[in-house]
Design goal:
With about 55 residues, this protein is mainly α. It contains two helices and no strands. It has a domain at about 1-25. The mean pLDDT is about 75.
């Protein structure tokens, strides 16, 4: 039963979805391959809020 739920999730979220195109499934040959840039900016913003003069 649990296996069927996983396959159903993969089918509906990835294979049949209009949100995620197959080109977006992989970060291979992409300039930005992680969300580190976003996380770094969020960290800088949260630290700067703590030290507002």
């Amino acid at each position: 039963m649990e296996t069927e739920a996983v396959f159903s999730y993969i089918q509906s979220t990835w294979l049949d979805s209009s949100i995620w195109a197959p080109e977006e499934w992989s970060v291979n040959r992409q300039t930005v391959r992680t969300n580190n840039d976003t996380e770094g900016l969020r960290c800088i913003q949260s630290v700067s809020i703590l030290y507002v003069h």
